[in-house]
Input
Amino acid sequence: MLAAALTAALPLALAACSHGVSQVNFVYSVSFSPDGRSLASGDAEARVLLWDVGTHKEIGRPLNGTSSVVHSVSFRPDGQMLASIDGATIRLWRVRTDKQVGRLSANTPDLLRVTFTRNGRVLESAFNDGTFLLWNIRTRGRIGKLRGRQTALVTAAAFSPDGRTVATGSYERRTIRFWDVLTNKRSGQPLAGHTDEVLGLEFSPDGRMLASGSLDKTVRLWDVRTHRQLGEPLRGHTGPVECVAFSPDGSTLASGSNDKTIRLWNVRTHTEIGQLRGHHDAVSSVAFSPDGHRLASGSWDGTIRVWDLRRRRELGQPIEEPCNCH
Output
């Protein structure tokens, strides 16, 4: 996920794909449903869309009501609800009916990311000023707040699988910091190694490892317990690394880049095991299917692509996000 702090700096005309600059609708976020049969996407035209993974057809109507770029979408573990963020607002959607069923907001700058806890009862949200809010899904009330003492805009954030730790990367600093949600304090020393801004963060499914992607074109793996870098940086991308994602079993890492490619890495050996090519612009989001056999990627070229990871090839034609360009 390219941070809201950076994408907000893009000219509005470009983000809205108007005036002939680019007749595409930028895709900022993709997420598989828990059963792996559908995809949700958030785009530059302030819409959330649902797609059938098998047919690549749009499901139902666009989830309208958002007011700005949708930077993050996330399914609840039971698949019945979807959360999206636009600006400083979180919206909750009932998937079956395409209806908005909740709106959460706070007096904070733009949101970066939203995700449900494993039990689906709590929603975790990260803002670009270093604020993290927890919400009770049943009551829609705020149940927790962590204020990371950041002196620069936060450009990437990730919640650990158990919901107790938040990792952040900032715009000016090149380090990654951990924050304890329960104590509301910074945990351990910053992770130093990147030579430029951190753009993407993701915890491994078991919470023991953190992956980071950076403007310095590298991917790095970190031991969450010792706060040490694991091995050498993963090199190969020729542009900034915008997003990272672990496979469900934690054995493979996918990274998407401004160089228009997705690279696959063996987490144990730290070696590249594949490349996926087809996008014509930056890859802004990657997500594994629940069974780990497929990967979805969203791009600034206005498409979502679904990949067969066993054969290392694209499945069907690209899903093209509709663009209301004039």
